[in-house]
């Protein structure tokens, strides 16, 4: 159990040292995040110039959703997506052979090889937005809500990881799935709003098919005192299922890998 | 060793051919290549398209919710009108897919441009032809999505024959304006290796000033006025409104003139930028 964690830390350090060489990228990322934040705020302003509340969510509450969305986007961009894109590329080009020769768990190695620390700027921006939103909310945030928020974030992150692993594993069968990143980015945009505003079929898809509801809306519900313990328990249960299922699917996929030289 | 720097034996610059001046054969050839290539990657194309359709569906749901809360309509748009707007949006967005500045970044950073410079053609002509050829495939794949969205969101259309005709023509105009502008942006990578933040700024401006995010009628008046003097609106809002908005004949034809103006400006800009940019190009083993 400890070994994967040690490996993760090691790869994290290597990745961080690598990225730290390119310090100008920090400022570029900050600029990019600021532009996105500005656009997001403009949209919120536009909506609330027309209506006092969106389906029961007030302006600070929607700001909290936006903050969580940016934060989780930073986690995905820094920790999850880079390794998954590398995995997809390696499978396609046959260089996945090199991973297979390592005496470690293939899934663990495949999931931690690449990080982009500057994408983590969004984690900080997201936290700032969440902080601003919480300070505007009428009810103050108690310790239970804070713990619920933390737990919901971790559970949501694990689900997004499982989802990325699932869709990347498809690369073992279908050669060109480069557009998967665009597909995910597009779907992820829906998390900018609480999933409760979507029609039933879409809400169900965004909850169980693509776990964006769990990744963004549930943590935001924790912040806005809407989260009940049973929803959190359901999220935890679903995360466990997603982790097991994605691992099983990855193993099936592995057996279909034919390598570069065959 | 950089070819550009070894100035004495520098090859003649590629012949600059206006992208608007025919070259019909090249376009047809590029288009056929694009069709053959993209038909192979149906799954990839669908993933791309589904990811893209998420954007208007989100806006549609958000604004329909606002409309429902405001007693059925907001800014003159009912839920049905929003549905029509954003379903047409999906087609316009697909037509508006062009070679992005990120593509230019890759092309220039990796020295891929060297091979293209050997062609006796302005590289942007090849991009225009290729992406234009991709469109029939895109439209074919788009039809089921449009059908699905129509069944789910019940759009209300009231298009006039002139509106339909102007819509069809304006799609080409929108494609050209966006292609030319993004090419000019892409050429910035001759000076800097990272175009991301500049492109993001362009996209942010486009989102707010084009009708991509929300019909322009919902924007504050000063934003609407500002948008009239910028190219963005003529690539999204105008084609969509030509079909679903109740534009007057004057507005319809005026929009086409505005498109033509921005095509001319875009063509001149891309050639001027290219003139200065290409002098800076250097490639490994180029």
Task: Outline the structure in words.
The complex is a heterodimer of chains A (262) and B (286). Chain A is mostly helical. Chain A has one domain. Chain A is built from eleven helices and no strands. The radius of gyration of chain A is 19 Å and the shape is globular. The model of chain A has no long low-confidence stretch (mean pLDDT 88). With 286 residues, chain B is mainly alpha-helical. Chain B has one domain. Chain B has eleven helices and two strands. A two-stranded antiparallel sheet of chain B has the order 1-2. In chain B, β1 and β2 form a beta hairpin. In chain B, α3 packs antiparallel against α6. The radius of gyration of chain B is 20 Å and the shape is globular. The N terminus of chain B is likely disordered. Chains A and B meet through α2 and α8 of A and α2 and α8 of B.
- By DSSP, the count of extended strands of chain A is 0
**Oligomeric state, counting identical vs distinct chains:** heterodimer
Question: Biggest interface and its residues per chain?
Answer: A-B, 39 and 36 residues
> Structural class given helices, strands, pairing of chain B?
mainly alpha
- Residue stretches of chain A low in confidence (pLDDT < 50, at least 5 long) are none
Strand ordering within the main sheet of chain B: 1-2
The best one-word shape of chain B is: globular
Number of helical stretches of at least 4 residues of chain B: 11
């Amino acid at each position: 159990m400890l070994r994967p964690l040690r490996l993760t830390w090691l790869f994290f350090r290597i990745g961080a040292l690598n990225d730290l060489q390119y310090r100008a990228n920090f400022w570029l990322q900050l600029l990019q995040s600021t532009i996105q934040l500005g656009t997001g705020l403009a949209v919120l302003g536009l909506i609330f110039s027309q209506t006092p509340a969106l389906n029961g969510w007030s302006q600070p509450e929607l700001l909290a959703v936006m903050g969580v969305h940016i934060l989780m986007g930073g986690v995905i961009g820094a920790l999850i997506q880079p390794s998954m894109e590398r995995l997809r590329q390696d499978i396609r080009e046959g260089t996945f052979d090199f991973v297979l020769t390592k005496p470690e768990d293939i899934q663990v190695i495949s999931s931690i090889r690449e990080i982009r620390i500057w994408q983590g700027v969004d984690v900080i921006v997201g936290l700032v937005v969440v902080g601003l939103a919480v300070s505007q909310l009428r009810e103050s945030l108690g310790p239970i809500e804070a713990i619920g928020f933390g737990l919901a974030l971790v559970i949501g992150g694990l689900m997004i990881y499982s989802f990325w692993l699932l869709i990347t594993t498809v690369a073992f069968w279908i050669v060109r799935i480069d557009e998967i990143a665009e597909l995910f980015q597009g779907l992820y945009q829906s998390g900018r709003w609480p999933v409760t505003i979507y029609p039933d079929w879409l809400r169900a898809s965004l909850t169980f098919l693509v776990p964006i509801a769990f990744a963004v809306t549930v943590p935001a519900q924790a912040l806005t005192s809407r989260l009940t313990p049973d929803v959190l328990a359901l999220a935890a249960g679903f995360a466990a299922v997603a982790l097991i299922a994605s691992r099983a699917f990855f193993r099936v996929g592995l057996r279909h890998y034919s390598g570069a030289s065959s | 060793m950089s070819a550009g720097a070894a100035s004495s034996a520098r090859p003649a610059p590629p012949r600059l051919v206006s992208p608007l001046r025919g070259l019909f054969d090249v376009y047809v050839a590029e288009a056929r290549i694009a069709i053959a290539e993209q038909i192979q990657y149906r799954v990839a194309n669908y993933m791309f398209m589904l990811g893209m359709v998420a954007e208007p569906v989100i806006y549609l749901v958000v604004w329909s919710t606002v409309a429902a809360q405001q007693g059925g309509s907001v800014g003159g748009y009912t839920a049905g009108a929003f549905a029509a707007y954003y379903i047409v949006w999906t087609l316009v967005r697909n037509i508006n897919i062009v070679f992005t500045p990120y593509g230019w970044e890759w092309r220039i950073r990796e020295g891929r441009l060297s091979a293209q410079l050997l062609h006796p053609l302005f590289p942007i002509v090849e991009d225009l032809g290729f992406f234009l050829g991709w469109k029939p495939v895109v439209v074919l794949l788009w039809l089921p999505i449009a059908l699905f969205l129509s069944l789910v969101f019940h759009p209300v259309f009231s298009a006039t024959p002139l509106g339909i005709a102007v819509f069809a023509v304006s799609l080409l105009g929108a494609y050209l304006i966006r292609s030319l502008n993004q090419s000019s942006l892409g050429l910035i990578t001759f000076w800097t290796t990272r175009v991301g933040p500049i492109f993001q700024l362009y996209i942010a401006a486009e989102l707010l000033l084009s009708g991509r995010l929300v019909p322009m009628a919902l924007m504050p008046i000063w934003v609407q006025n500002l948008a009239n003097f910028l190219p963005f609106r003529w690539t999204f809002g105008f084609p969509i409104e030509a079909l679903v908005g109740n534009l007057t004949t004057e507005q319809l034809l005026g929009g086409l003139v505005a498109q033509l103006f921005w095509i001319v400006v875009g063509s001149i800009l891309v050639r001027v930028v290219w003139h200065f940019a290409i002098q800076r190009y250097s490639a490994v083993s180029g």
